[in-house]
Amino acid sequence: MKYVFFDIECACVYKNTAKMCAFGYAVTDEKFRLQEKEDILLNPRGKFHLIGRKGGEGLVLPYEYEDFKKYPTFNEEYPRIKKLLEEDSVVCGHATINDVNYLNLETKRYKLPSFKFDFYDTQFFFMNAQNNFTRQFGLQAMAEELGLEFTPHRAVDDAYATMRVCEALCAREVTDFFGLVEKYSVRCGKIAGYKIKSPTSKGLQRYYSERERQREEHIKAHEEFYRFVNKNMNRRKRGGSLEGKVFCFARDIEDDVAVSRKLLEVIFASGGRYTSHPTECNVYIARDEGGMRGSTAQAAGAAFIPLETLESALESS
Questions:
Q1: DSSP 8-state code for residue 7
Q2: Is 164 in the same domain as 241?
Q3: Which residues contact 54 (CB under 8 A, 6 or more apart)?
Q4: CA-based torsion, 277, 283, 285, 291: positive or negative
Q5: CA distances from 127 to 5, 136, 162 (A)
Q6: What distance in Å separates the CA atoms of residue 109 and residue 107, rounded to the nearest whole number?
Q7: Buried b (16+ CB within 10 A) or exposed e, 147-167
Q8: CATH number at residue 161
Q9: Looking at the domain assignment, is residue 250 inside a domain?
């Protein structure tokens, strides 16, 4: 069985279009001994339009763009790419779901049969190994973490670097490729019938479960906080020392009901009021700089008071 590590570069990517210009791959055995690597360059039949993720200046591919006109189109190289990925291969990439989607879009564009293969993802392996599913690790960052160097955005070099990252990760975890799969209970991604299924793992499912638990706790705390506000604000003392003061808390303070209720009891007992709208308050309370909500409040003229300062002032009053 061969291991195929691959990477794709596109001349342009839109929602329903990905015009491929390079399919790079590295083939190894199970010991990561290199057997073959190549950059299959493709005529994208379209202009290069490379933009950044937020619409700014995009990446620059290390190719001469005019040269692509002389290369075969995707449909001409499709049989070779299909054979490479489907025949007795363990397929792996970096953020592989993106490249699989590019393949899917190109087969639809040229009205070709769907690819059908299972695939793994070194980025997903790394996320499991780090037990960190809150961010996507770039290939270059992973390579640096594992002590590797490479030139990014040349498809064959990215494919080779993906292989080296996988090899280094296996060495660090003292296992082999399928040892990683077993250790982190990874289920491979799949493409068939133009439908794509992402890789998953027990770690990712635990992360989703914990995130859902935190979401439910947030909803519960939010409801409890505003029930208390609605029930007690109209009962506040009139003419107290905080008369005319309208407070707004950072969301993490609102969610910390034990703290927020204690503060509100003192604020209401002294004639102050509360609002959930930062533009309507004249005192904003947060544990740190206050984030976007705090910036909105201060831009509207509110005074910013750190939570610790308010707690100390209320306790001494």
A1: E
A2: no
A3: none
A4: positive
A5: 18, 8, 14
A6: 5
A7: eeebeebbbbbbbbbbbbbbb
A8: 3.30.420.10
A9: yes
Give the Å distances, CA to CA, from 208 to 139, 202, 218, 286: 24, 10, 15, 28
* Same domain? 90 vs 180: yes
Please indicate, yes or no, whether residues 241 and 185 belong to a single structural domain of this protein.
no
- Pure H helices in 150-256: 155-172, 177-183, 202-232, 251-255
Same domain, 144 and 268: no
Assigned domain for 217 exists = no
Q: Is residue 119 domain-shared with residue 15, that is, in the same domain?
A: yes
Give the pLDDT of residue 314: 64
* pLDDT one-digit tens code per residue, 23-70: 999 999 999 999 999 999 999 998 887 654 444 445 567 777 788 999
Cα separation, 10 vs 25, in Å, equals 15
Other beta carbons less than 10 A from residue 234's beta carbon: 9
Contact 303, 282 (CB under 8 A): yes
63 and 112: one domain? yes
Residues 183, 268 within the same domain? no
What residue has token string 């390079």? 22
Structural domain boundaries, residue 45 = 2-198
Tens-place pLDDT, residues 227-266:
999 999 988 888 889 999 999 999 999 999 999 999 999 9
- pTM tops 0.70: yes
State the DSSP code for 135.
S
What are the phi and psi torsion angles at 190 (to 5°)? -145, 150
